[in-house]
Amino acid sequence: MPNLFLWLSEQRRVFDFVKSNRFARKLASRFVAGETINSAIAAAKVLNEDGTTVSLDLLGESVSSREETAAARDEVLQILDAISTTAVDGNVSVKLTQLGLDIDRSLCIENMSRILDHAKQLDIFVRIDMESTEYTERTLDIFKELHDTYGNLVGIVIQSYLRRSASDVEMLIESGARVRLCKGAYAEPPELAFQDMKDVRSSFVALTKRLVDDGTYPAIATHDDEMVENTLQHVKEQNIPVERFEFQMLYGVRRDLQRKLRSDGYNVRVYVPFGSNWYPYLMRRLAERSSNVGFMARSFFKEMVARK
Ligand code: FDA
Fold first, then answer.
1. What would the pLDDT profile of 128-155 be if each residue is shown by its tens digit?
2. CA-to-CA distance for 208 and 210, rounded, in angstroms?
3. Global pTM?
4. Ligand 1 mean position to 223 CA, how many Å?
5. Domains of the chain by start residue, with CATH
6. Is residue 249 lining ligand 1, measured as CB closer than 6 Å?
C-alpha cells in the first residue's frame, strides 16, 4: 500500500481528481498550513507561541518551465520578507526541482543565489530539501557550490535510507555544513537504498551519533519514538548541550511529541508546508501511515456513494 501512494505522488493526471475531493482537502489541511503565505505565517505564529520554531516550505516540485521557476523563486523571496516583517522565528526550506534543477543547472544556481542574497540581507537560513535519488548527486553538488559562497546560511538534508549517506555525512561534517537527517520519503531501488526499516533505523541511529558528536547544529528530523529516545540517550551520555542540535517534525504530525520535547527544554522546529501544490506532499504523508490511508479510502467511498 505505501508504495502505491509513492507511485501516485508522481502521477499528475490523478492530481485534479484528488484535489477536487473535499475529503482529500480536509486530510491535506491536517498536514498543510493553507494555500497562502498569510496562512503559513498564521500557523507559524501559533507554533512560535510555545517556543517552537518553524521552517516554511512553499509546496511544489518538478517544475518544467523557466517561468514557473521564476514564480517559485519570487514566492520564496516573499516568504523571506513575510518572516522578517512579521518577526516569525523561522527559516525556509526549498526544493531544487522547483527552482530549475530539471531544466538547467545554471538557472537553478541563479534562482538559489537570488534567494540566498536576499536571505543574507534578512539573516534567514535556507535549507535545501533532498528529493529522490535521481537528484541526490546534483543536489549535493549544487549545495557544495552554494555553501562555498554563502557558508552556513544554506543547509542540506541527508536521508538515512540511502546506502551512500554515511560517506556523505562525513564529507558534510568535514565542510562544517548544517545537515538535517531524515529517513527518506521516496520509493528507491534496493541497490541505492535499504529496504528493511530495521536497516534504515540503524543507519539513522549511527548518522545521528556522527552528526550530534561532530556536526554543525544538526537537525534530527523524525517522529519515531525510538529514534528520538536514542538521540536523547546519546546526548545525555556524551554531555552534548541542547543548544548543539534540534529536533524537527512535520506540521500536524506527533504534536504530543513536539510539545513534550519542547517542555523538556529541547529545540524543536516544525516544517510548515503550504501552497496550492500539496498533492505529492500529501501522498508521501499517506504512504507513511496506514491509518491515514484508511481515512482517505473511507472518505472517497462515502463521497462516491453520496454522488450516486
Ligand atoms: P516513521 O515513519 O517510522 O514514523 C514514526 C511515527 O510517527 C509513526 O508511528 C506515527 O506515529 C508518526 N507518523 C509519521 N509519519 C506520519 C504521518 N504521515 N501521519 C501521521 N503520523 C505519522 N524526506 C525526504 O526524503 N527529504 C526531505 O527533505 C525531508 N524533509 C523532512 C523534514 C522534516 C522536518 C521531517 C520530520 C521529515 C522530512 N522528510 C523528508 C520525511 C522523512 O524522510 C520521513 O518520510 C518521515 O519523517 C517519516 O519518518 P519518521 O522518521 O518520522 O518515522
1. 999 999 999 999 999 999 999 999 999 9
2. 5
3. 0.91
4. 6
5. 33-276 (3.20.20.220)
6. yes
